[in-house]
Amino acid sequence: MTFTTISSAARRSLLGAVVALALAVAFVASASSAKAATGSPIGKLDSAGGTIGNGVVSGWAADPDVPLYSPIDVRLAVYRSQTVCFSTGRCKVGRVLVASLTQTAYDWNSEAMWALGGIAGAHGFKFSVDYAAGDTACVTALNVGLGSDTPLGCISLIWIG
What is the pTM of this model? Predict the structure, then answer.
């Protein structure tokens, strides 16, 4: 039986090559799995805050159909409940659009970077909007290419204080 020994330096070099190959495979797999999404944008409504009368709504959005995950547009819609009463005495509560803003999601967002497999993190958005207590803010990621717009969520804007 013959045994072959290799030096510590060669062993470290071989281990480094194996680790580099594993990382390359993992990167390619994560990039292709992010690209193989439905075609509709992905994202998240992260937080809402602000002061009385002025809210800040933030999160991130990206679209797998955009080359190199370039930034996409997101829309904020603010709705207010309104009661309408008819001459019959019957009243109905409805929602009225009081503000609609669109911006490009290109701010840095570390959560977006991890969600996209480390490809890029410049997909954050932050809206600043005037509101009344009880208004509802909804954010939608606007689709590019295949797929459709993706609602990222709605939040009720309230005054605490």
Answer: 0.68
